[in-house]
Design a protein that fits this description.
Layout: E1 6-9, H1 20-30, E2 34-37, H2 53-66, E3 72-77, H3 79-90, E4 95-101, H4 111-127, H5 132-140, H6 146-153, E5 156-160, E6 168-172, H7 176-186, E7 201-206, H8 214-224, E8 228-233, H9 239-242, H10 244-254
Parallel strand pairs: 1-2, 1-3, 3-4, 4-7, 7-8
Antiparallel strand pairs: 5-6
Helix pairs in contact: 1-10, 2-3, 4-7, 5-6
């Protein structure tokens, strides 16, 4: 039998593109295939008005079913971590192991910053810039941090306009309206309805991040995921980007 595949789920405003090089490293280190997915309303995936954890978990199950994959190691960062946790609670037999990257199954604050990012990207969209450079300059008036701006800009794509004069136009691959409408839902975690996932679970947290704290969140995680190990790395929220080698080692050891 072939090795159980790994499924990687990105965070809010992310895409499988952010995981491209790390997925290759992970595949080589763990000796299996890695499927980095675009969640709904992100990347190349379809836009839909509904954006919540039960639907995203169902999307992932649909992806596995369509490929005849019975089980996978489910790895998710941030919003993707909550999708992964909800997936494990809902489809435990399809979850070989669960890895949540800097996310716990509770309530997060910090919506105002993300609200601001959505408004900033919507302003860029509505200004209809012709080039990526113009889009970046427009975004810079709202988002001063170049690293954050570079990350948000990965969602901008030049496409050839259908009909018309054929000049390419910039589109944002995110469904900004749906994400704005569902942001409050994304900071919550769905009611587990008494379910637990007893399979092997790993939380990889950033010690400088406010999202995860082993002392503060230990009991919360154990209640739903009793078989949990913790690895804290000296990073902020973007653990896999800030400490890629240590991140891959942690998963390799865990699997």
């Amino acid at each position: 039998a072939s090795a159980t595949p790994i499924v990687v789920l990105h965070g809010l405003f992310g895409s499988k593109q952010n995981w491209r090089s790390l997925s290759k490293t992970l595949a080589a280190a763990c000796g299996t295939t890695v499927h980095a997915l675009d969640l709904r309303n992100h990347g190349d995936s379809p836009h839909t008005d509904v954006h919540d954890y039960p639907h995203m978990a169902r999307d992932v199950k649909g992806y596995l079913d369509a490929r005849g994959l019975e089980r996978a190691h489910i790895v998710g960062h941030s919003m993707g971590g909550k999708v992964a946790m909800h997936f494990a609670l809902t489809y435990p037999s399809a979850t070989a192991t669960l890895v949540s990257v800097d996310m716990v199954p509770g309530v997060n604050s910090g919506t105002s910053e993300f609200d601001g990012f959505i408004r900033a990207m919507a302003r860029v969209r509505d200004a209809r810039p012709a080039t990526l450079k113009q889009a970046d300059q427009l975004l810079a008036s709202d988002v001063s941090d170049p690293a954050v701006r570079q990350f948000l800009m990965t969602n901008m794509k030049l496409v050839k306009a259908a009909g018309g004069d054929g000049t390419p136009r910039l589109v944002n691959r995110l469904n900004l309206d749906a994400l704005a409408a569902h942001l409050p839902t994304l900071w919550q975690f769905p009611d587990s309805q008494g379910r637990t996932y007893t399979g092997p679970t790993l939380v990889i947290g950033g010690s400088q991040s406010t999202y995860v704290d082993a002392d503060r969140d230990g009991a919360l995680v154990r209640r739903l995921f009793p078989n949990t190990e913790w690895v804290m790395l000296p990073t902020g929220h973007w653990v896999h980007a800030q400490a890629p080698a240590a991140f891959v080692r942690a998963i390799q050891r865990f699997l």
